[in-house]
Amino acid sequence: MAFITANWNPLGDTFYRSAELYEMFWSLRDGLGDSLVAAAPYGGPIALLREPLRRSPSTRPQLEIYSASGASIASFPWKSGPVVHLGWSVNDELLCVQEDGTVLIYDLFGSFKRHFSMGQEVVQSQVLEAKVFHSPYGTGVAIVTGSSRFTLATNIEDLKLRRLPEVPGLQGQPSCWAVLTQDRQTKVLVSSGPELYVLDNTSCTAVYPPGLSPQAGSIVHMSVSFSYKYLALFTETGRLWSGTSLPLQLPVCLLTFEPVYLSRCRRPRSQQPSVVLMWDRLLLVVGSCNDTIQFPLEDQSVLVGELDGVRIIGSISQELLQEVPLVCQDIFKIASMAPGALLLEAHREYEKSSQKADEYLREIKEQNVLGDAVRQCVEAAAHEYDPDTQKALMRAASFGKCFLTEFSPDQFVTTCRELRVLNAVRESSVGMPLTHTQFKQMTLQVLIDRLVYRQFYPLAIEVCRYLKIPDYQGVSRVLKHWASCKVQQKDLTDEAIARAVCAKVGDSPGVSYSDVAAKAYECGRPELAIKLLDFEARSGEQVPLLLKMKRSQLALSKAVESGDTDLVYTVVTYLKNEMNRGDFFMTLRNQPVALSLYRQFCKLQEPQTLKDLFNQDDDHQELGNFYVTSSYRDKRLEGRLAQLQSAVDEYNKAKNDFAAKATEEEMRLLRFQRKLDDEKGAGLLGLSLQVSVNTSDQSEMSLGPGCDWYWWLKLTSLAEKEQWEELEKFSKSKKSPIGYLAFVEVCMKNNNRHEAKKYVSKVTPEQKVKAHLAVGDLEGAADAAIERRNESEMGAVLSRCSASDRLLMDKLNRARVATAKK
Amino acid sequence: MAHSARRDSPELPDLSLLKRLVRDQLIYLLEQLPGKKDLFIDSDLMSPLDRIANVSTLKQHEVDKLYKVEHKPIVSISDQICFLIRPRIQTVKWICDVVNADKAAGKFRRYKIIFTPQKFYACEAVLEEQGVFGDVTTDEWAFYLLPLDEDIISLELPEFFRDNFLAGDQRWVRTAGSALHLLHSLFGPFSKVYGIGRCSKMTYESWREQVEQGEQKARHAEIGNVFLIDRDVDFVTPLCSQVVYEGLVDDIFRIKCGCVEFGPEVTSSDKSIKVMLNSQDKVFNEIRNEHFSNVFGFLSQKARNLQTAYDKRRGMDIQQMKTFVSEELKGLKQEHRLLSLHISASESIMKKKTKQDFQELLKTEHCLLEGFEIRECISFIEEHINRQVSMIESLRLLCLLSVTENGLLPKDFKSLKAQYLQSYGADHLLTFSNLRQLGLLVEQQPGETLTVMESKVGKLVNDRTAVKLTDAFSSLAKKSHFRALSKKLNLVPKSDEEYDLRVPRDMAYIFSGAYIPLSCKIIEQVLERDSWTGLEEVTRLINGHEFAVTGADPKSKSDAQRIILVMFLGGCTFSEISALRFLGKERGYKFIVVTTAITNSSRLLEALLDNNV
């Protein structure tokens, strides 16, 4: 760590450094020559296709996928057509653009996902060149065809092909071109000889880079910076032009070279872009001040533009070339007096137990910049790649922190955590050489996603736990991916997978078993899907998938289980349309909840279906009820009677004699009422028997034998009309089934004590006392009570006696005593 | 009340919060349809709505005219129509007709349907079927709970009872669960939940599911315990005549949404008056839980007090008079008005009740509850039917007989039903079928030894003895569940002791000391034991689904632990509420009653009639 500045190279007033990231795991026999190479930015994977244009079917080219550290992830022979270009999508998918315009998409592990075409006409004209680019909309593909036309797709997830306008005078392949995204628009910059054009959706505009003289010749290379902000052009006469991309502004640099590859390097905070040029064995960094740095290259390499540097991938090793971040420059520059540098020094002395530590500290404190010093150290640590340097800086920061009160530890703590995570993913076994700046740009969520894509599930979970991400966004999300991946493992039995998934996932919040099951179903494992669905706690979630899988019976019972009637109803309607009627009814029959729900619905919407439903079940009782109900809807008597007759039949089948008989009587009554209505217009139809008799005064209507009510009716109506003689005749017509006490009471109610008394003698012995009392005959009541030797009755009479009935009371009391003695 | 009440009763949480929440939501929904609009309201939502937002509030939010949903073509001229309805298929169908009629007439309007408390898929399916799905916008007004009083909350869903218990349609279970969830999120977390009944169990599960899906917030609990109970656990109680003042008023005048309309016979003028009956009414608050026999005494005492208060005026000088007029007089006048109203209401009740031999009726009910002199009771019921006293009352007695006796003897079953049909119309055949399905009016299972014996005995001896024998047998043979329960839980106090209704000693006072309501007794027992242990026999007889779940850990023995939310699924009666209030006073609890609707015997049975087609 002492020689941190050893690999620093000055360029103008700044420094560049190149640090080795990995010794590559791979062993490439032929180096990187003669291969298509694509490496994803942000430390992404590398794809390699050897001899892409070899067409002989006997020796197919091999497509290999490696991690950034060169560890093999997948390798398979390329069986499709010749590939023009390889590229990575933002989701770590490999896009292979074929000559015929077909784009094949593979995942990280080399399994084919899908494909799309860049248009029919391409098949004829062939793709000459293609580029995969990233925009705010996602990943896009641009091609140029043999007929010199450009076609764009800005987002492969939502494919919309755009054919760009023709470039005037362009024949065959353009000398060079680039895609850039600005102001939400994707444009193509293309050079045709010395001319430079900008192509957008509708137009083709010529542009002239200011300061680039026409004598410079045609442009042979161009490169756009990572953020599409800067552009570098290289002409055949070896001049380099560099400026802001669109609109073309003042050149930053003009140089003469012949590079093989051109890439841009940009520091986040410096205003000075620089250009990296690569020849076979030489790398040149060009700044704005006509200064250059030269790096010799040992073998053929590939440049990958990153946000804050360039990765140089060679067949042996991989390096990162970047501008030294300002804060690191401040601290490590030789003889720097920045607060951070002093603090680092102070800490170093402190470790050596030297008193100089105090001097340094004092110096910082006098300038009152200890806080800045700590911040600098922390920040610098974040940008350092070597763990020892990180440690030294963090220790120094922590040391400085001790002398500060009221200093928020947040930055320190976060950086510590992030560094640990970064160090873990930079590990060559994982192979994601992310810088801190890149990490911040791509966010933790994306990092976790990428770990998940790479199937580093344990690491991803560790990271989530370590950074204390809420389960919902962290661990659960990882588990969800893991489970979806697990169900695709063909070598395991359904049982084993279900068990494994359940054991791991348990009931973590946010992992939906139904989603996992849906995945299993997609992979053609319905049995496994059902097993997984069993773990789903919310039965409501199971239903849609079950329906999709045509397990309608199961779906129905799950819907019922969920207690959500809306869901049940959804399934019922689905079944109703899917099944034939018989099966549908049979299914409902096994699910009483669904059945009653459907019945409720039918009652209001489809009464006929309801009838069919009962018919199917041979539910004669309900069928009878159904006919009775519908009989009331029928306004015509004939219809009504017919309905009732059906009801009677059904009741008979249901062995409900009572209901059958009652309905028959109702029918007879209806007919009779009709007759009377016709004869006298009495308006009886629909009234109850008793009411009919009452209103029409027709005793002949008393149809049945249960005539208690008839007696009551006659009794009260006669009494109310004060037809006492009639009443007496009536009382003698037959033995009263309601007894004679009723006669007494009704007479009394109509204030005729005289008539009431007539019936007292007829009352049964048990009710005698009551009857006497009712007419107010205390003596009679007393006699009756005494005769019956009933103590409580005597008491009842006594309670009615007033003081004037002395004699009677004595008599009763005596009798009471006498009864009590016995 | 002269109860030995515990003084340390906890404070009830402020339920008016519920009102404010739904009012705000309704206003928000109305604003979603900017501009003038006509509002059509389901008739049974009128009164509840009135308690939430009055007409002027609605007018403020650009409601132009208010109409009742009458299932007829509409006359509105507004070009924006808002429907505020319960999620019922008939109503939605009517709306479809309205929309289609407009379309046919080439009239263009904007329609918005606000379903309360939620919309059902079936309703949307109807909209789709009728081809108006695209023409209307739908919304939900989560108006689950209406606080009727400081301790009564109603879901105002009378159809819950029929739909759930008779039709087996569980669509409302989720609604009940959501209502519970709302209470939980406002006044929870609950530390313990007890319940009995199938529907309770499902409601509990639906609530749990919603709790798990939502976010948990640690807050200070205001309601500690919850008790869920199904109406079909106890049918006996709502079938009894109510004799507590509030219950009686409900039985006779029908309290609607906490409000009663006293007709001319009470107001002694030609107008009727609407009166809010709640704890704000001081006079009512003191008599609502009293047995009716005490009400007159109390009212006259009150009248005397009032007179004394008025009389104070006599010896006053000008200054005192001034303060009296400004401070006391208004209150006194108000009280005076209410007092006279309640006195005339009581008189009216007295008149009605004595006319129908109320005492006889009560005696019969008590006999049924005690299982005593059943033959006489049956004759009474027969007479009741034959004299056509009241269709509902007769039915009520029949059901009470069947429920307490665990079914009727086949002979009685047939003859009583036949007489009923002749008196009240054959269409009640369907009513009987419903009652049978619910187990409210059933035949004792034939094939039991009893019937065979009875018929043999019947041939041997004369009628009267046979009847007595049958009675004896029926008490010997398979004991009805109610009888067993009554014995087990001591529901019927011994009749030989005098019961002083002025100083009640248990909840039986609400039925003149003849019967402790089963539902309330179960609640009392479970709370006392803090679990169902020891009640296994009882739950078996009820055919239970009982459960007790400990939820959030009660951190302290706070007051909230003594506030108990009782949720009746399928309705509860005012008598039960009175009984719980009494229990609360005795034990130092406070009960908050949540019910799907306030019910009584008539509403219960009317819901089961099937002749309304």
Number of strands of chain B: 14
- CATH architecture identity of the domain at 1-14 and 164-324 in chain A: 7 Propeller
Strand content of chain B: 5-15%
- What is the 3D shape of chain A? elongated
Superfamily (CATH H level) name of the domain at 1-14 and 164-324 in chain A = YVTN repeat-like/Quinoprotein amine dehydrogenase
Cross-sheet strand order for the largest sheet of chain B: 6-7-14-13-9-8-12
Query: How far is the first residue's CA from the last residue's CA of chain A?
Result: 125 Å
Helicity level of chain A, as a percent range? 40-55%
The major β-sheet of chain A equals: 5 strands, antiparallel
The chain-level structural class of chain A is alpha+beta
Mean pLDDT of chain A: 78
Q: Which shape of chain B, going by the Cα principal axes?
A: globular
Helix content of chain B: 40-55%
In order across it, which strands form the biggest sheet of chain A?
A: 1-2-29-28-27
- Determine the strand fraction of chain A and express it as a percent band: 15-25%
Number of strands of chain A: 29
Domain Vps16 C-terminal (chain A): 511-694, 710-815
Domain Vps16 N-terminal (chain A): 5-413
GO molecular function (chain A): actin binding
Subcellular location (chain A): Late endosome membrane; Lysosome membrane
Task: Name its key features.
heterodimer, A: 822 residues, alpha+beta, Methylamine Dehydrogenase, Chain H, 31 helices, 29 strands, 20% strand, elongated, B: 613 residues, alpha/beta, seven-stranded mixed beta sheet, five-stranded parallel beta sheet, 14 strands, 12% strand, globular
Explain this structure:
With 822 residues, chain A is an alpha+beta fold. Among the domains of chain A are: 175 residues, Methylamine Dehydrogenase, Chain H (7 Propeller), CATH 2.130.10.10; 119 residues, 7 Propeller (Methylamine Dehydrogenase, Chain H). In chain A, helix 24 packs parallel to helix 26 and helix 28 runs antiparallel to helix 29. By secondary structure, chain B is α/β, with parallel strands linked by helices. Chain B has 26 helices and 14 strands. In chain B, helix 20 packs antiparallel against helix 21. The longest helix of chain B is centred in the middle third of the chain and has 38 residues. The chains are: A alpha+beta (822), B alpha/beta (613).
